[in-house]
Design goal:
binds ligand 3LM, 17 helices, alpha/beta, seven-stranded mixed sheet, Aspartate Aminotransferase, domain 1, Aspartate Aminotransferase, domain 2, five-stranded mixed sheet
Length: 441
């Protein structure tokens, strides 16, 4: 096979998969190339492991190299200048990206069915970099009522003082968006399910309304991950993640993503991130995330299975007034959950028949389950949002934003489910002095 043929194969391969084969590849590698050429049609689990990386391009290393260089050398000023003009594919400086970050972004874009992705230093880095890129004074952001505490704080204390109008609307009621949206609305923003109270919004319906008014729909998909929900396929323009959670999966990194159309992601990278937030992901965290993504599907399946059993247990407890979990038959938005989520996820919110003090005592009574913020880790985590993750809301704001001061949030982990239930059961007994209702294992 002559070089011209190999070169043509390279062009075809790289246009399909961005595989970058060297000219000297032997026959064996060409076979591998053909195997990889059909990758775009592969399943989620396969893409989470293989997408956009061929070990044979990297000395056979299964684990992609970790690039921690802050800067990149050029042959000369002309080559450097061309890179700054965007005329070649060279890397310049780690605030703009690195080879391993690029791999992570391609892989994540494939999982979310997005044209492009940008990895960031945190979920808040993703949210702020994206939002600063699209809003200017006088513009309006319409946001759902219930938001993660720091997102709410950013809207209140970051956007509003800069002259951006923020209007909170109950987006679970699609009609409410139709009433509220106007020509000054540039962005509609929601989590689904919402942190911490598990309210859903109809992504497809909201996208339709937003687009009729030339506004973008931005969805925080942290609770679901692309394994359970793919907002872009339902019409959302931008998706953000706290990758600190299920995507990393092991509680050992802080990171985020924004995903969307290439043009929008380029703009966020070159403006919101480069010039405004500087929320750059570290090379070490890129590496940990590439590892985390490889097991995402397996972990999520077990998280969801455990959570279903825990939610069923909690919903039968006489001490639980409300158990909010999309997998329960009495969940108010179960039909919507089934329409847009592959499974109910592993986050549960409960309200007890109890005072705020008793609710806190219940959290404090855990023996194995850890009292901690964050979610999506192997460890089951419990916390009291009004005191912890959502303490950025005042008492009045908590009520206005549908976050009950009695609400307790549970991130169901990967321990044996009987041990999780046993711990909850002993906590009920210890606080309420009865024997609890443990479903026997
Ligand atoms: C938490 N949440 O415990 P980072 N979007 C959602 C989130 O839940 C979060 C972010 C964005 C929690 C973190 S609270 C001090 C700990 C839906 C984070 C922000 O910047 O990666 O933390 O993501 O609910």
């Amino acid at each position: 096979m002559n070089f011209a043929v190999i070169k043509n194969l390279r062009i075809v391969a790289s246009s399909i998969h961005q595989l970058n084969f060297k000219m000297e590849i032997p026959k064996l590698k060409i076979t591998f190339l053909f195997k990889h050429m059909s990758k775009t049609s592969k399943h989620f689990a396969t893409r989470a492991i293989h997408q956009a990386y061929n070990p044979l391009d990297h000395h056979g290393a299964l684990t992609p190299p970790m690039h921690i260089s802050s800067t990149y050398a050029f042959e000369n000023v002309e080559q450097g200048g061309a890179a700054f003009e965007g005329d070649n594919d060279r890397f310049i400086y780690a605030r703009l990206g690195s080879p391993s970050q690029q791999l992570l972004e391609k892989r994540m874009a494939s999982l979310e069915h997005a044209e492009a992705a940008l990895a960031t230093a945190s979920g808040m880095g993703a949210i702020t970099s994206a939002i600063w890129s699209f809003l200017k004074p006088g513009d309006e952001l319409i946001a759902d009522l219930s938001l993660y505490g720091c997102t709410f704080s950013f809207f209140e204390h970051g956007l509003k003082p800069m002259g951006i109008e923020v209007t909170y609307v109950n987006l679970s009621n699609t009609e409410a968006l139709t009433q509220a949206i106007s020509e000054k609305t540039k962005l509609v923003y929601s989590e689904t399910p919402s942190n911490p109270n598990m309210r859903l919004v109809d992504i497809e319906a909201l996208a339709h309304i937003a687009h009729q008014h030339d506004a973008k729909l931005m969805i925080d998909n942290t609770y679901c991950t692309p394994y359970l929900q793919q907002p872009i396929t339902l019409g959302a323009d931008l998706v953000v993640h706290s990758a600190t959670k299920y995507l990393g999966g092991h509680g050992d990194l802080i990171a985020g993503f924004v995903l969307g159309a290439q043009e929008d992601i380029d703009h966020i990278r070159m403006f919101g991130l480069k010039d405004m937030t500087g929320a750059v992901i570290s090379g070490f965290d890129v590496s940990l995330l590439l590892r985390g993504l490889k097991t995402l599907h397996v972990r999520m399946d077990r998280h969801c299975k455990n959570a279903q059993k825990v939610a069923e247990y909690l919903s039968q407890s006489p001490h639980v007034k409300n158990c909010f979990f999309p997998g329960l038959s009495d969940f108010a938005q179960q039909a919507l959950a089934q329409k847009q989520m592959k499974a109910p996820g592993a986050m549960i919110a409960i309200e007890l028949h109890a005072t705020r003090e008793q609710s806190a005592a219940f959290v404090n009574a855990m023996q194995m389950i850890l009292c901690a913020v964050s979610l999506g880790d192997a460890e089951t985590l419990i916390q009291h949002p009004a005191s912890m993750t959502h303490s950025t809301y005042s008492e009045e704001e908590l009520l206005a934003h549908l976050i009950s001061p009695n609400l307790i949030r549970l991130s169901v982990g990967l321990e044996h489910v009987d041990d999780i239930i046993a711990d909850l059961d002993q906590a009920f007994s210890s606080v309420f002095g009865d024997k609890g209702l443990a479903i026997s294992a």
